[in-house]
Every structure is written in structure tokens, then in C-alpha cells.
Amino acid sequence: MMHNQLKVAAVIPAAGIGSRMGLAEPKQYLRIADKTVLEHSVAAVAADNRVAAIYIAVAADDIRVQSIHFKTNCPVHLVVGGATRAASVFAGVAAAQADGFHWVVVHDAARPCLQLSELKAVIDAGIEHGDGAILALPVADTIKQTQVAKADIIANSVPREGLWRALTPQVFRAEQLIEALRQLGVEHAAITDEASAIELTGGHPKLVVGQQTNIKITQPGDERLAAMFIALMAKEQACE
Ligand SMILES: Nc1ccn([C@@H]2O[C@H](COP(=O)(O)OP(=O)(O)OP(=O)(O)O)[C@@H](O)[C@H]2O)c(=O)n1
Ligand SMILES: C[C@](O)(CO)[C@H](O)COP(=O)(O)O
């Protein structure tokens, strides 16, 4: 069912330093085609007309974001993020809640290839399912576990049945997410996404199958893959 009438706020954690990329600037400011990775991600979440406001959590000393003019149909607010992803998400959700939003769609700034069909599906599922919903992909490869002392030597294989890779967006009731983060604390090492905070406080979010193209720019080379996907998606849109 499509929940057309409901308005949601998007929260974009964009306060990371991108240490695994090893670049001079954070990965959300890399340029792909005509704009930065952050602008691609913001435009992607703004594409669903239920998204009525966007809250971007940026580092306190971020000056790059000041020169960006976000071209969206809804207001874009900047909030100060924190030392962990969870702290940045908390800041964004708290701001959205203060502005009266009851639902939040959290999407990594580092995932610029999100497609509208995925976004719509996860918002629908999140609102419909009691404990929210996330985009995810079932693990498709054989999974190996390494030895404790030797990181490149196999100890055994792990059954992949029931294993999924978590993506974003992740959709939750603002109240439920903020309470979970407050209860666990935003420094909690096991909160690597919003769903894990909900799980750790007793909830069971729904999994919605995402697209292989919805990659997170994490390691060198990922930006080239993202650029290819963005070019392909633009070409497909032009043909529609
Ligand atoms: N304190 C932090 C850490 C991360 N993020 C954001 O969370 C998203 C996903 O995190 P990740 O890929 O781990 O980004 P970084 O923390 O920047 O990368 P790294 O772990 O390589 O340093 C990114 O959009 C990142 O900007 C954030 O808002 N605040
Ligand atoms: C939220 C997330 O993108 C889901 O895959 C991810 O957990 C955050 O980044 P990290 O690479 O795990 O730090």
C-alpha cells in the first residue's frame, strides 16, 4: 500500500571523515558528474514527495557544506553531527522531531546511487510494519570465517542462509529511534545502523530487498563504481 498522505523527514548522516578512503577530503564531497556525493544522496531522498524536510548532520567544522545550494523541493536544514554515526543520526532525528515529524528516513550521505523505487518501497514498509524497515541485500557469496590469530587464513565457512547486508535508507518512527539511541547511548559500539539500535531494544524491523547499485562509497575505487551507476541511471531516466 502507498502511504501518500504521510509526511516524513529525511536524516542524512554526513559528519564522517571517510578514513577508509584515505583522501584529503571526506568522501561525501567527492564530485561525481555535476555534483558532490552528498548532493546526489540528498537529491535521491528528496525524490519521494512524502519527504517534506531534510536534516543533514555535518561535522562542526565543516565549511564545504556552506557553499552548496541544495536543489530540492523541500527545506534542507544543517545540524551538527557527532563523533559516531549514531550521534549524528541522533542530532538529525532530534531536530526533525522538534519540527513535528513523526517518521524519519535515515540515509547515508555516502550512498549516492539510491533509486526512487527502493526509497518508495522502504518508506511504505517502514510505515506499515510496526518496528520500521530497512533496505538490505541477501548475502549471495560463500562466507568464510578467518582464524583468530591469522586474518588471511580460513578457519571455516559460515552458512549464508538468513544473512543479509544492511543498506540505507532505514525508516522508523522518530520516537522509537530516538528512545532506542538514548537508552543505549550513541557511543555504543554495536549500533552500526538504525536497525541495530531497534534490535538491541527489543524491536524487529522488516527487511526490504534493495538494489545492488545502492553501494556505500567506503574504499578507494568505490567512487568509480558509483560514477558508473549514476551515469547508467541518468541514461535510463532519459529514455523513460
Ligand atoms: N561520526 C560520524 C561518522 C559517520 N557519519 C556518516 O555515516 C555514513 C556512513 O558511515 P561510513 O561509511 O563509516 O563513513 P565514515 O565514518 O566517514 O568513513 P570511515 O569509517 O571510513 O572513516 C557516512 O555518510 C558518514 O558521513 C556521520 O554522519 N558521523
Ligand atoms: C548504515 C550502514 O551503511 C549499513 O550498511 C553501515 O552500517 C554504516 O557504515 P559502516 O561501514 O558500518 O561504518
TrEMBL record:
GO terms for biological process: isopentenyl diphosphate biosynthetic process, methylerythritol 4-phosphate pathway. Pfam families: IspD. GO terms for molecular function: 2-C-methyl-D-erythritol 4-phosphate cytidylyltransferase activity. The keyword Transferase applies. The keyword Transferase applies. HAMAP family: IspD. This is 2-C-methyl-D-erythritol 4-phosphate cytidylyltransferase. It comes from Pseudidiomarina marina. The gene is ispD.
